[in-house]
Write a structure and sequence with these properties.
By secondary structure, the chain is of the alpha/beta class.
Length: about 375
């Protein structure tokens, strides 16, 4: 079976939840005998030997360097390319790129769409962009041959808005190596077990500013806050965050991290926090759990769906409540047994091997 994946920036190690999802999924599909071709955006896609990575083939196509046009123009070009290549399945990710599903069907392609979350709810978009994204959701759901959603929340949304059923296939994790090295930590002045970690793109809906203010209010002695990630398109939010961090003691911004550097930061954090207002099913939160970290998250539906005990959640935007939770969680040092139990729990619930098998079954049903 030949499958083409479209709607992401690229990978490996390109920042973003969709990018991480496709990176993990595609290599496992290859192991199951699928010929996978990923259409990446040339400005993000790393240059790879023979344009392959772990058996996954890549095709880089140009996209404009403007956030309002980048995804839709690239997807249009990608669909045209797919029409020439004739894959058995064109798998489009996210609701913005799904605006091109009707065109793909006109070209006679069989299309699967994965809905990663209602992107029109993100704070960065204006009215027209929200309209286009909602239209992409509508057309993607109505005109695709099959619909995949990554959470029950999204499944219910699609059922209520469009009366359509979907395949629930969540994001996943693989158990990572726990690193004891401190090279990366020392470069940022971090002490093992004594820092709070947030890993995400630097965009408004991740609510970094809430966390910085809560950390400042908590008055934790000997602790630091590490914000890991970068902004694809520097804007007013990034400048506001950088200004706040520069005026808040013991907060560091590490920039984008990947590979062993990121694994080291995850392995030795004392606490992971996700204060976001918008998620599909948060991969960064699942990854933190795969390292056995204690987690605090805002009480939005997507975060609640992960299924942690109530004590791990705080009201969205409630800085005082978050500050109290930071103090509470900082007092408890997890044992090795507790960390191992957390790792095993998240692996059993969100296993990429099972996710890849379920996705391949959807492909097989559509390709019949």
């Amino acid at each position: 079976m030949k499958v083409m994946l479209l709607g992401l920036r690229g990978f490996p190690d390109v920042q973003g939840g969709v990018e991480k999802h496709v990176q993990e999924l595609s290599q496992l599909l290859v192991k199951q005998g699928v010929e996978v071709n990923v259409i990446g955006r040339s400005s993000y896609q790393p240059v790879l030997p023979d344009q392959t990575w772990r058996g996954v083939k890549f095709t880089s196509i140009w996209a404009p360097q403007k956030k309002s046009l980048e995804a839709i123009v690239h997807t249009f070009l990608g669909v045209c390319y797919a029409a020439l290549q004739r894959p058995d399945i064109l798998h489009i990710h996210a609701v913005g790129p799904s605006l091109m599903v009707p065109l793909a069907r006109v070209f006679g392609l069989r299309v699967v769409v994965t809905h990663h979350g209602p992107d029109y709810d993100r704070q960065k978009w204006g009215k027209f962009a929200r309209f286009v994204l909602e239209l992409g959701e509508r057309w993607g759901m109505q005109y695709s041959n099959a619909r995949i959603v990554i959470s029950t929340v999204i499944s219910q949304l699609i059922k209520s808005k469009y009366g359509l059923d979907s395949h629930l296939i969540p994001n996943g994790v693989q158990l990572p190596r726990l690193l004891t090295s401190t090279v990366q930590l020392e470069s940022f002045g971090l002490v093992p077990g004594q820092y709070i970690l947030l890993v995400s793109r630097l965009v408004p809906e991740k609510r970094h500013i809430d966390l910085v203010k809560a950390f400042s209010q908590s008055g934790l002695q000997g602790w630091k806050l590490a914000i890991v990630g970068a902004s694809d398109h520097p804007d007013d939010y990034l400048r506001e965050l950088q200004n706040l961090v520069s005026n808040t003691p013991d907060v560091v911004m590490t920039g984008y991290q990947s590979g062993d550097g990121l694994r080291e930061l995850y392995s030795q954090a004392g606490l992971f926090v996700l204060p976001s207002s918008h998620e599909g099913l948060p991969i960064a939160m699942l990854e933190a759990l795969s390292f056995g970290l204690p987690v605090l998250a805002s009480d939005i539906p997507a975060n609640l769906e992960v299924g942690l005990d109530a004590k791990h959640y705080f009201p969205l935007g409630d800085i005082q409540a978050l500050a109290g939770k930071l103090k509470e969680f900082s007092r408890h040092q997890l044992t090795t047994d507790e960390r191992n139990a957390t790792r095993q729990w998240v692996l059993e619930k969100y296993d990429w091997e099972k996710i890849a098998a379920s996705t391949l079954q959807v492909y097989s049903n559509v390709a019949k």
